[in-house]
Every structure is written in C-alpha cells, then in structure tokens.
Amino acid sequence: MEDGLVNKWRFLGNKKLSFASSVVIKRVLTSLKENLNQNDTRPIIPLGRGDPSAFPSFQTTSVAEDAIVDAVKSAKFNHYSPNVGILPARRAIADYLNRDLPYKLSPDDVYVTVGCKQAIEVIVTVLTSPGANILLPRPGYPTYEAYTRCNQLEVRYFDLLPEKGWEVDLDAVEALADENTVAMVIINPGNPCGNVYTYQHLNKIAETARKLGIMVISDEVYQHLTFGSNPFVPMGVFGSIVPVITLGSISKRWMVPGWRLGWLVTSDPNGILQKSGIVESIKDFLTLSSYPATFTQVKLNLSLLEGIDNDTEFCLKLAKEESVIILPGVAVGLKDWLRITFAVELSALEDGLGRVKAFCQRHAKKQ
C-alpha cells in the first residue's frame, strides 16, 4: 500500500458473464464484419442478421406506427408501469391468446417483459435450484445457455432432427431427463432453423413433458406481433404504450400480410425466391433441410470445397472475399451448418447469393 491506498483492484469480474457475452449472436456477426475487406467497394450483404424490419420491403405497418404516435402525444402514459406490465396490456394479450385456447387466461396470467432476453432471464432465475438441470435444443438460441450458466443451472442438450423438419428428438428428451430436470425449451417458430411445428408434434412434446413432470418453455411464438424487432413495436414495449394504442385488443392488421404470428413463419413471402431461382444455384454446396423461411439452416458440404475446414472458416473467408455476412452454425450449436437470413431486399438477396455461388465455385475442389 502507498499512502493508505490499495495498489491492486479487488474487482475481477464475473467469468461466467464473460462466457455469456461470447456466445451472443451479435458478437459473432461483429467478428465477421471485422474480417471484411475494406478495399471492397461493393455493398455489404447482411444475410446473417435476424431483423427484417431494417429493410424497406419489411417495414412495420403504418397502423402500428400511427397508433404509437397517438399514444405518445396523449401524454397519458409518461410514467413508470407495474413490473408485470400495465393492465390494458395484459388484458389485450390475454384476450388475443384466448382466441386459440380451450381455456381462458386472465390478465393476471400474463407477465410482460422488456423483450425476449428479459423473459429468459426471469424464467431461468425462477427455475434455478441446487442440482437442477434444464433441457435445451441443439441448434438453438445461445442466450439460454448464457443465462443458465450464470445461474449455475446445469444444461443438457437434446437434438433437433433435420431429416424430420427439425422436430424434437423426444427419445433423447426422455433419456436426458431425470428427477432434477425442471424444464425443456422449444423454439417455435424455429430460430435458427425457420421451421414451424405441427399441432401433432407439439401435442407429442406436451405429452412427453407431462409424463416426465417437467415444464415446457415455448419461445418465439408470440414474441413480435408486428414484423421483426423494430424498436417501436416489439412485445417488450407492451408494458408502456403499445397495449393502450390497441384499445384493449391486438389486431392482426399489425402483421405484415402473408406472415402469420411473426417473422419466422411463412416461407418465401411474395414468392420472391421461386421467381428468382437463386436458391437452386447454390444447392450443390449448401444442402437445404427445408424450403427457406425467413431463416433457414443449411448444411455446408465441405467435401466439395478446397481449403475450408469448418463453418467458421467458410463465413470468415466469405466475408473477406465477397462482403457477405452469414452466421456460422457453431454460433447456435450446430457445427458445419450455416444460418442464412432471406428477409432482405430482393436485389440484395440475389446479389448476396450470387456472391455465395461465386465464392463456392472459386473454392471448389478440382475434379
């Protein structure tokens, strides 16, 4: 010590949080952007991001925008809201969900969070107890693993089956679960796979969970009632102004025509992929497990490529050589796959996949 001062900080930081930040998808995309060739004057094609609303063709409906402006101008809601969300919001959400349920939810059954990440944090914290474990899908959304590690909740992974439209491997779920298993997570509509489970498969999941005595946490289905994660209209702001502008109801007019319950469901909006034929041009190198939705998970055929050993190397070289950003599958728990986003402007999509094709041909093994 010098002059009564400590010469070394005692604060070391939480290593679990450091791990959590390393598995965030945005961090992976940022590292790819750092690998771009600054001398390439072509526009960057973002086929790795998950926010279609950033593009003009997928903007939020004006009905929602006008309603939010009216709510802000009314000055009736410029105050702190209850932690669970204000009553009009919870009532509107309950009424909306009741359309498809055989029983009725009340506003007291609804807890509003500021986006999906806070919802995950709240649920994981509530479920945490000594020795408990949770079952997560692979591939899946990495934020779950981050929060479970921070809360010292053991993670066990069950696989999704690409040959069956990314259905849950229910045999694996039964084999993994034990007396300490508190819950399993399903993501439907699927991120990163872009799939949607049938009613029959969802029923089998529920029956399996009931038999094992575990909770099912269903992510994504109602996360965004409008398109994408536009900062004005995600579910997360329901606790302040959005429920009021709906006047006690949630209108399906808020959804972009052709898209059902959000931004991961309907494949090929407006038929742009069929018209362009761009998907067919890269099928030799990228094996599509299903026809593209907003997201699609594709298998990387490394046997046809020279000097590329894994999905991360593929994405790094693609970014550097073609200024195209694609998410490596390892970021969502599935090595040597790729997650490609199709909800961008058609011109950018055609340009981007054209560059992917050129990249694959340039790195193809010589016959």
Automatic annotation (TrEMBL):
- Statement: the UniProt record of this protein carries the keyword Nucleotide-binding: no
Q: Which GO terms describe its biological process?
A: L-tyrosine catabolic process
Domain (Aminotransferase class I/classII large) ranges = 43-277
Query: Would I find Hydrolase among this entry's keywords?
Result: no
Q: Which cofactor does it need?
A: pyridoxal 5'-phosphate
Q: Which UniProt keywords apply?
A: Pyridoxal phosphate
> What Pfam family is a match for this entry?
Aminotran_1_2
What are the recorded GO MF terms, alphabetically?
L-tyrosine-2-oxoglutarate transaminase activity; pyridoxal phosphate binding
Instruction: Spell out which residues are annotated as carrying N6-(pyridoxal phosphate)lysine.
Output: 252
Q: Which SUPFAM superfamilies does this chain map to? A: PLP-dependent transferases
Indicate the family of this protein.
Belongs to the class-I pyridoxal-phosphate-dependent aminotransferase family.
What name appears for this protein in its UniProt entry? Aminotransferase class I/classII large domain-containing protein
Record the organism.
Answer: Acer saccharum
